[in-house]
Write a structure and sequence with these properties.
InterPro entries: ABC-2_transporter, ABC2_TM. By secondary structure, the chain is an all-alpha fold. It contains 12 helices and 2 strands, in the order ααββαααααααααα. The protein starts with a helix and ends in an 8-residue tail after the last helix.
Length: about 260
């Protein structure tokens, strides 16, 4: 893979995103809206921590749905249907360079969102630097990999760009309601908690909160304090779920992703 070629495709993606106001609002506007929702939660204790920080660390994961998943589904579907993907495959670019540029753009935009939100949590919401920043980064990187592969798969079953906003909704709402983004899962029945473990965003939220607070947010209520490095052991289950989703997403993407229009 040629890094220069990947950067050229990424620059093209950024230009097209800037021209598409609807996609731009999805990637930039919605995260700003969700960040604003943290203000009323400041000072309210939820699950043993400040409510704004609890929801804010959940949003660090949830922004993946906007910047990576929804963005890439729109990009791949629109470019497939207008035959851009087909034309790009006729150039010297490899398949990995074509898709890698789009993933790079989405990842860069997500990184900006995540850094901005971390700054807001620290400066305006009474937060601090993450207790284990490397663990937080590992969780977010795993989330990028999972939601990028899911975007490949979902774009393949999306008929056209107009319907892309609809086909992403089941995963978006599932992640919003079942991953503990807005509220903790500890109060749910045990059988329902076990189902929520396997929502693709759940392991990301668990890892991020564990790394940010330095407490165990994987194994139920209590959230015991962890020494530096112990968070990695606490998050073994979460990383295994991420690996499962990455493998499943790759298998579905291999089966469903299309380079040419569905009506071709």
């Amino acid at each position: 893979m040629n890094p220069a070629a990947v950067l050229r495709v990424a620059r093209l993606d950024l230009t097209l995103l800037w021209r598409n106001r609807t996609a731009l609002f999805t990637v930039v506007g919605l995260p700003v809206l969700f960040a604003g929702m943290l203000v009323p939660m400041r000072g309210q204790e939820i699950d043993g921590v400040d409510g704004a920080l609890l929801q804010g660390t959940g949003h660090l994961g949830f922004f993946l749905v906007f910047a990576v998943f929804m963005n890439l589904v729109n990009v791949f579907t629109a470019r497939r249907e207008d035959r851009t993907l087909k034309r790009l495959r006729g150039t010297a670019l490899t398949d990995a360079e074509i898709t890698g540029g789009s993933i790079l753009t989405a990842t860069a935009m997500y990184a900006v969102q995540a850094l901005a939100l971390l700054a807001v949590l620290g400066a305006a919401m009474g937060g601090r630097l993450p207790a284990d920043p490397v663990l937080v980064l590992a969780g977010l990187a795993g989330g990028v990999a999972v939601f990028a592969t899911l975007a490949f798969a979902v774009s393949g079953i999306t008929p056209n760009a107009e319907l892309a906003q609809l086909t992403v909704l089941p995963i978006m709402f599932g992640c919003m309601l079942g991953a503990g983004v807005m509220f903790p899962m500890d109060g749910l029945p045990e059988w329902l908690q076990r189902i929520c473990w396997f929502v693709p965003l759940s392991p990301v939220v668990e890892i991020v909160r564990t790394g940010y607070f330095g407490q165990d947010f994987v194994h139920g209520a209590g959230h015991a304090s962890l020494a530096f490095g112990e968070g990695w052991l606490a998050c073994v289950r979460s990383f295994l779920v991420l690996i499962f989703w990455a493998a499943l997403g790759r298998a579905l993407a291999t089966r469903w992703f299309r380079w040419e229009p569905r009506h071709a």
